[in-house]
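We include the pair:
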Amino acid sequence: MSENIEKVKCLIIGSGPAGYTAAIYAARANMKPVLYQGTQPGGQLTTTNEVENFPGYPEGVTGPEMMMQLQAQAERFEADIRDGWITKVDFSGDVHKVWVNEEKEIHCDTIIISTGASAKYLGLDSEQKYLKLGGGVSACAVCDGFFYRNQEVVIVGAGDSACEEAHYLSKLCKKVTMLVRRDEFRASKIMASRVKNTENIEILFNTETDEVLGDGQVVTGVRVFNNQTNKKHDIPATGFFVAIGHKPNTDIFKGFLKLDETGYIINTPGTSKTNIEGVFVSGDAADHVYRQAVTAAGTGCMAALDAERYLAAKDSTFEVSTPTYN
């Protein structure tokens, strides 16, 4: 083996609740984990101003603060947290190989993938402005809907997820305006029927977003246009939700790991195992249903425990620690 190649017992690809939790468990199990944070250290939660649904924070916490605390907890147990991202992998042989920033080569006994999934946005300048400001643009109604209680919001989307999120918001908000680009839903009939029959959801078909309006700090409305007539009008709103899907960050694993039709990694049910021995997955890279910080953290724990047991089965000198709650 070349002196330039690093040998790692447990490599964690990606940060966020899944990656950092995996690092905490792996470090406590003496697996000497190395974690590369990726292009967005801390993951999607670093763009969230307030997190109020993660256990243990009765007063809530900001996304960046929670990620800093999780990282510090992993480092307390001597997890090796590094800047950089994995740009290439090779799982074709007995040795799991990865490359960092297209340069450094690492050979790994086990790998935990925690690369997450990125929400799709419309790409409007005004949308991105208020998303970065944390001023009223969101891609997760379950995460952020509470902050818009008794207010009027707009949601974009036409699939099952959009209908679920619109219905969820309708229980919290005074009014939900749903923008559907075509003249019909892509959602299942039962989901479409649910939103159509919800009194405080107004559905605008053939309607697209022209601009997210605001006062420079928070959203105050949405300018929309009918794509059949090109007629524009403004909708007062304090929240703008985008529910047009997520893209799992799994492109570099194509050709090695089994992915579903949308790119999510397929794991063995009830485990974090992938189709490649010694490679495990946690968080939103495999979860297209829940996509919550707490569920991501839970699967990070699972992946570390699965990796630990895999190492013990391969190496009789490696002892499996007894899982505890402390």
Q: What stands out?
A: The CA atoms of residues 59 and 141 lie 20 Å apart.
